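testing teh design pipeline on a random one, pls ignore if ur not involved
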């Protein structure tokens, strides 16, 4: 469900193992793209804007941070539709969720089998960091976990099991926020160097010679969809997170300094790497 950056490669991979794979998206364009997609021709994804009955629903639609709040409406829309067709189906949430989303939806729509298995997808190295890579899995109950483990095993996706839906949801947010913090630190150091007439690249190279330091480059600011969204999803789980707020402020300050301080490198706009 959701045939975009994540959902399409998922559908392609699943269809190699399960010949009766269905693809669903509200967008005609996304559905047409499946039909045109080269890899898909060799598989048997039946894509449609109408959702059909299935035993397993994998939800990979958008989640947003809009007007100061997380927006899980597309995930909820898909969950509702899937529950109406088969409330006993295994529902695998692969979209990035705020903590508590999966359990709240399971309760609201009387779902029996629910799992959260977030993505760490990185398009520049899809062979290594695509659909098939070590991922975290949390489940609603023992039966859900058994079914989800069987499903991901059958897809050849190695999993690290955690003992709740919430831990799986949080793990994704923590991973991307960790990267956000490191970039924001690099940005702050770049400004420090500029103010003190020092060469940031030389400092960057020097500190990275230490075995436990991996300072990222300071590029054009933290962009893209995932990192700015995921840090805010994480902040939404706690009344105060001053370190994270500071990182956002550092990035805003860095971006406001303008293009003249930026290197010719592209922005740190990746989702997961
Ligand atoms: N792109 C990445 O690198 C990446 C990595 C890890 C996690 N994620 C997460 O995966 C999720 C999907 O991201 P994406 O990059 O694939 O997004 P995308 O915009 O490329 O694709 C999302 C698809 O969902 C469809 N959609 C939206 N609302 C829908 C609805 N109500 N019903 C059916 N289809 C609907 C859209 O039409 C679109 O085709 C997000 O939660 C994102 O944070 C993305």
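output:
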């Amino acid at each position: 469900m959701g045939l975009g950056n994540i959902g399409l490669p998922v559908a392609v991979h699943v269809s190699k193992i399960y010949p009766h794979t269905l693809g669903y998206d509200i967008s005609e364009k996304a559905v047409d793209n499946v039909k045109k997609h080269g890899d898909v021709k060799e598989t048997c994804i039946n894509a449609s804007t109408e959702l059909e009955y299935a035993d397993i629903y994998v939800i990979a639609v958008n989640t947003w941070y809009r007007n100061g709040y997380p927006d899980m409406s597309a995930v909820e829309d898909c969950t509702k539709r899937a529950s109406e067709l088969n409330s006993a189906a295994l529902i695998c949430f692969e979209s990035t969720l705020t903590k508590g989303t999966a359990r709240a939806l399971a309760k609201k729509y009387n779902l029996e089998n629910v799992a959260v298995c977030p993505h760490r997808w990185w398009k520049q190295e899809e062979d290594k960091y695509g659909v098939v890579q070590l991922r975290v899995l949390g489940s609603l109950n023992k039966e859900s976990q058994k079914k989800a483990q069987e499903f991901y095993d059958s897809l050849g996706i190695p999993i690290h099991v955690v003992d709740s839906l919430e831990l799986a949801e949080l793990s994704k947010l923590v991973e991307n926020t960790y990267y956000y913090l490191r970039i924001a630190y690099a940005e702050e150091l770049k400004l420090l160097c500029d103010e003190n007439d020092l060469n940031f690249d030389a400092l960057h190279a020097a500190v990275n010679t230490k075995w436990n330091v991996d300072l990222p480059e300071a590029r054009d600011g933290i962009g893209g969809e995932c990192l700015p969204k995921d840090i805010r999803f994480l902040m939404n789980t706690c009344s105060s997170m001053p370190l994270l707020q500071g990182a956002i402020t550092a990035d805003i300050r860095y971006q406001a300094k303008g293009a003249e301080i930026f290197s010719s490198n592209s922005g740190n706009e990746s989702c997961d790497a």
